[in-house]
Design goal:
CATH class: Alpha Beta
Largest sheet: 4 strands, antiparallel
Number of helices: 3
Number of strands: 9
Order of helices and strands: EEEHHEEEHEEE
Strand order of the largest sheet: 1-2-3-9
Distance between the termini: 17 Å
Helix content: 10-25%
CATH topology: NE0471 N-terminal domain-like
Number of domains: 1
Structural class: alpha+beta
Radius of gyration: 13 Å
Oligomer: single chain
CATH architecture: 2-Layer Sandwich
Length: about 110
């Protein structure tokens, strides 16, 4: 399962489309840290998200681990306790049991 596209829905909520057509929405409003605070200083900067080889990426070499997006936590909110790994990648601090997924209507 790979991420193929990302669209900012509103504020810090992003809708990701997977290569099987499913959609996941994630709320990044609780994600903090020096890497993210710089990259996401304004809504315009946050909206520059792109998917590069399946990895959510922002200008300034800020990347999120795709697993953190796929396992984003309860109701799609990435937990405040998430860990920033090497290269600014967000790593999940604990496993989650449920993914919030919907089939894409764009087929």
């Amino acid at each position: 399962m790979n991420i193929v596209s990302a669209t900012v829905v509103v504020d810090r909520i992003v809708r990701f489309e997977l290569n099987d057509g499913r959609l996941i929405e994630r709320d990044f409003s609780l994600v903090r840290g020096p890497v993210f605070d710089r990259a996401w200083a304004t809504q315009a900067k946050f909206a520059q998200i792109k998917i590069v080889r399946g990895i959510p990426t922002w200008p300034g070499d800020v990347e999120l681990c795709p697993d953190a997006v796929l396992r984003g936590g309860i109701r799609g909110r990435i937990p405040r306790s998430a860990i920033v790994g090497s290269g600014g990648r967000l790593l999940s601090s604990k496993p989650v049991r449920e993914l919030v997924l919907r089939k894409s209507s764009r087929r």
